[in-house]
Amino acid sequence: MGSLWSPEHYLITSRFAAEAHNGQTITGTDLPYLLHVSLVAMEVISTLALESGHDGDLAVRCALLHDVIEDTSITFDDVAGRYGSAVANGVQALTKNTQLPKEQQMGDSLWRIRAQPAEIWMVKLADRICNLQPPPAHWPIERVAAYRTEAQFILETLGEASPYLATATGENHELWSMSRSQKSGVRSQNTKNPSHKRIR
User: In the structure, what pLDDT confidence band is assigned to residue 196 with cuts at 50, 70 and 90?
Assistant: First the structure.
């Protein structure tokens, strides 16, 4: 038997996330950013159906809210007031500290995630799975290599939280690498739009 989660809580939290991310789109598309959030939640829900012993509501709520502190005007206190300290602490751990140099931000976030329950680890794995789609054609080879290395680092650091997500992360990592190698000669320019969300 898997881990239980509340559809009612999903709907309430999804609406809150939709309002918070309103107007934001996925980089390079006109698709609403809520699609990414929903896909991360879907990965988590798929895992909960297969693995027992997880706090399903904590995992699903943090999946839906994982970018609200980092990328919207929502604060830690806003999340804590609505969803409690466990959810707020999880979302905060999933939020990069932009006061640090960029090269230190991921390591710092992973260190803070590891101090949280396994459900927060699962959200980070699910987030990276959803981001391991074919990379933008304008990315230089060096950035692609760095992103691939970072994905492997996330897997090695957090993979023990969920066998299902660890396997999926590894598989998507390989597919992403193969797709980028086939398109390594393609380059294009992307017009910057502050409402477009980056690949993380």
Answer: very low
